[in-house]
Design goal:
Elements lengths: L9 E3 L2 E3 L3 E3 L16 H9 L5 E8 L16 H16 L4 E6 L17 E2 L10 E6 L2 E5 L5 E2 L2 H20 L4 E5 L5 H6 L14 H4 L1 H14 L4 E5 L7 H7 L6 H15 L3 E5 L11 H10 L3 E5 L4 H9 L5 E3 L2 H5 L3 H7 L28
Parallel strand pairs: 3-4, 3-14, 4-5, 5-10, 6-9, 10-11, 11-12, 12-13, 13-14
Antiparallel strand pairs: 1-2, 7-8
Helix pairs in contact: 1-2, 3-6, 6-8, 8-9
Bound molecules: flavin mononucleotide (FMN).
Amino acid sequence: MIHSVLNAPIKLGNHTLNNRIVLPPLTRQRSAQPGDIATALMAEYYRQRASAGFMISEGTQIEPRGQGYAWTPGIYTPAQIDGWRTVTDAVHAEGAVIFAQLWHVGRVSHNALQPDGAAPVAPSAIAAQQAKAFIATGPGTGELVQPPVPRALSVLEIEELVGHYAQAARNALDAGFDGVEIHAANGYLVNQFISAHANQRDDEYGGSLHNRLRFLREIVEAVSAVVGPQRLGVRFSPLFSGTQQERVYIGLVEDDPHHTYIEAIKVLEASGVAYVSIAEADWDNAPDLPDTFREAVRSAFSGRIIYAGRYTAGRGARLVEAGLADLIAFGRPFIANPDLPQRLFNGWPLNPLRAEGLYGGTQAGYTDYPAYAE
Ligand SMILES: Cc1cc2nc3c(=O)[nH]c(=O)nc-3n(C[C@H](O)[C@H](O)[C@H](O)COP(=O)(O)O)c2cc1C
């Protein structure tokens, strides 16, 4: 057994996980249409990957305006809740633990995806320059499009949105999820509020970092009141380096990412949130996070810490051994290898990722990756 530090049980909230390998949220755009409903094929995909110590669903929109890509699943209608129950039943039958990622894209959307063809909503009327939305052009076909200038939310609408997060969390429990993860990463709505560039409001939700963290704080409090802090995690994507263009593309540039995200993590600490998940820069040759930041995360936060982004088992194990991480998430390797934990623990070779069926499609590139045959 190699990388055995990753094959050790660990407590997360009220659960004891079997190992430290995480299936991170992975958008695959295969929900049933109309209605954005999770399907039996999706249940099979998650069931195949249920040897992960911890699983998080693909990003799941909490309301219609939260969608920025065709065919992503929602969690705001009774039919969507029923659809997700087939997924959670399948993974629970394998003994796995799964949280739902609660997603609102904010400005990274397009009128074609919005109710009544309206503009997407955001903290301020500032367009996402580098990000793309994805609209359907027919059944199973679509195209990437430039997000338009969004409409700035009113304070009343922000308060209503916090309520949508709480309701989505309630729905996730009804659907059988073991907890929820708030998606505050990758340039989507919560990240837009945190960013001094996307958020230029002059009310209590903008300006100072304290104000820019208010939306996050209110969501954490509202969702925690529903599910309890032990069934709650939050995902961030602090960006320290890379070219300006890469950083804007993947998320949002912060002038002082260390200070911004340690303050954000203190918000989670104050509520006793079970885990923080850090999505690192994941493009080719992306530089690593500074060790000083990882150490500051550990000092600021007493819950579990998950990292993702171009990890190998060896690199992940070293971070856990150094005491800087508790769990390591593998995205693309888990897409291509349903039995990834067994492969990593036994040193078996990995299937390569195929471009086919990465975003949308049927079983090809989704549930047809084989488990390892000795
Ligand atoms: C196809 C695909 C879909 C993704 N969808 C999501 C998502 O819905 N939510 C999210 O927070 N991150 C998403 N990510 C980011 C991954 O969770 C992960 O952070 C990233 O793939 C880096 O890990 P890796 O290098 O092991 O693949 C996605 C990544 C990929 C490749």
